[in-house]
Design goal:
2 strands, two-stranded antiparallel sheet, disordered C terminus, mainly alpha, elongated, 167 residues
Length: 167
Amino acid sequence: MGSTELTAAMQLELGLRMTLGLVLGAIIGFERELHRQPAGFRTHSLVALGAALFTIVSAHGFVGPLVDPTRIAAQIVSGIGFIGAGTILQHRGSIRGLTTAASLWSVAAIGTAAGAGLHVMAVVGTMLILVVLALLDRVEAFVTRRLGLHPDRAPESDADGRTEDMP
């Protein structure tokens, strides 16, 4: 099916949506880059930009009674999992990269929101992700120290394999 005719003003608005997605994704990626994670500045920027562009194409690129613009958004949600899976590593009994995978998934949502024109939701989502990545890390470290937990090892288990937490 053919695309709808877009005015120059609407194309400029759509370009600004893509730019917003890229900038917000870059902000999250910069935080990941500072923590030397496998997916950083450029990866997060591209994921958000790509999600914004897919959303715009889905909403404005096709016309007709059988067109469902939500189908592409649904594929963004599942497709980003493949990229996220590439950031997850198992090393010496510990799992690394889950937070980065989750941030990529969340950045795809930010790009989708930006592409859909939900600017405030995209900005608020970005701020909340930054809270989770920056602030909750400190809260977790504080609680771990305060409770005397050792984050790098599992709770000690008895001879039968049960931990103190298990009945």
